[in-house]
Amino acid sequence: MSGGLLVAGTTSDAGKSVVTAGICRWLVRQGVKVAPFKGQNMSLNSFVTREGAEIGRAQAMQAQACRVEPTALMNPVLLKPGGERSSQVVLLGKPVGELSARGYHGGRQQALLGTVLECLEELRGTYDAVICEGAGSPAEINLRRTDIVNMGVARGAGLPVLVVGDIDRGGVFASFFGTVALLSPEDQALVAGFLVNKFRGDVTLLEPGLDMLRGLTGRHTYGVLPFRHGLGIDEEDGLRVSLRGTVRESAVAPPHGEDVLRVAVCAVPLMSNFTDVDALAAEPGVVVRFVDRPEELADADLVVVPGTRGTVRALQWLRERGLAKALARRAAEGRPVLGICGGFQLLGEHIEDDVESRAGQVPGLGLLPVRVRFHPEKTLARPAGEALGEPVEGYEIHHGVAEVLGGTPFLDGCRTGQVWGTHWHGSLESDGFRRAFLREVAAASGRRFVPAPDTSFAALREEQLDLLGDLIEHHADTDALRRLIESGAPAGLPFIPPGAPA
């Protein structure tokens, strides 16, 4: 096989990331050497590659689906929102500055198209197939002129386009038709067809609609994927986390011991890498929920203060909501608190920030003997070490540099009593360390909780990726999909003028 494909979507959250991962896993199981690609990603969930480059976590997950090591080529442009109107621009894994949305779309973005296409071309020269993920919708006509992730990439690289629609939201036929109709003739010529995602029920009831859609558009539907719980692995957007919901819960598996452990995650503004708690939620008998009120910490055995792209803003938010006082009470009572990255920084004595918020020196929560100073250069690293007698690996992404003045060393941070802080993302994915940490939490909380001795987070992730591959293999027209990847969009696809059915 030799070729490529762009997986676009009718909307954000249509399922592009997981469909891309599923196609990648299906192909690699067929013996195809495949790589993922996303020209531009907007996400607060990121990852550090072995060469020290920062990319979106979704592309790191897709690389795992391909059973290859992630690289900066797979996500050349990463935007990390710092508020409503500006983002940090990460180019080929390194930050190059902050830009407003107007400044970025006003000229900077189009200048990056050449870099994006060069990265894609390099991947295509190395792999049998490259499965590209789009962003948002290709029919965002106000942004088409500067597009470097949807039809701009498809046109530049001659890729066929598969449009994914989330039928669980309703209106999927209108979304499919409208997406194609809003595109130019040149863009429409690359849209080969559709893939229905998250279908519930009897697929035969859907088939008349699919036949009508083909009649209206002249395009094939490449599959109907059934709804499956628990497939939202490594979501891109840390700004839309459902508070007080079951965003991350492992309530299915009974505890290995007599008790469950309850973990409350403070849903701070601009929360980043909230995927850090996935490994906790994967542990039998551990229930994880996101919270934003002090009373929701009362029954928690562990409170996690996660990473954030706005440390000083998160600190203010914790104080305004009364969560800062609740955390201080927990610390005084010897009840466990874990701060990760930005969450670690705000647990310290003070923060000197002339980089991220430009707020100067700001008092922290004072729960750890740490002083933080923000540096213009970002730390991007893949550290490894030992904690609680167990090997640990992680990754670091931060501007703040911590000066640890006391306490007990803990990874690169420290602990005082039952307050723990580290810059290491992903440390809880190290199984032995996670179990040792949970035993400490259980002891401090007086719980008869025993971590399951055989839970492997890596194995669970592999199972999820195989399930995604199964969805493609069993519910997509894989023969047609393979032809599409190898040969491109069929010739002579009809142009649909906007409003044609009327």
What do you see in this structure?
The structure is a single chain. By secondary structure, this protein is of the alpha/beta class. The protein has 2 domains: 247 residues, P-loop containing nucleotide triphosphate hydrolases (Rossmann fold); 200 residues, Class I glutamine amidotransferase (GATase) domain (Rossmann fold, 3-Layer(aba) Sandwich), CATH 3.40.50. The protein has an 8-stranded mixed β-sheet with strand order 13-16-14-17-19-28-27-26. Helix 1 runs parallel beside helix 2, helix 1 crosses helix 14 and helix 4 crosses helix 5. The longest helix is centred in the C-terminal third of the chain and has 19 residues. It starts with a strand and ends in a 15-residue tail after the last helix. Belongs to the CobB/CobQ family. CobQ subfamily. This is Cobyric acid synthase. Catalyzes amidations at positions B, D, E, and G on adenosylcobyrinic A,C-diamide. NH(2) groups are provided by glutamine, and one molecule of ATP is hydrogenolyzed for each amidation. Keywords: Cobalamin biosynthesis, Glutamine amidotransferase.
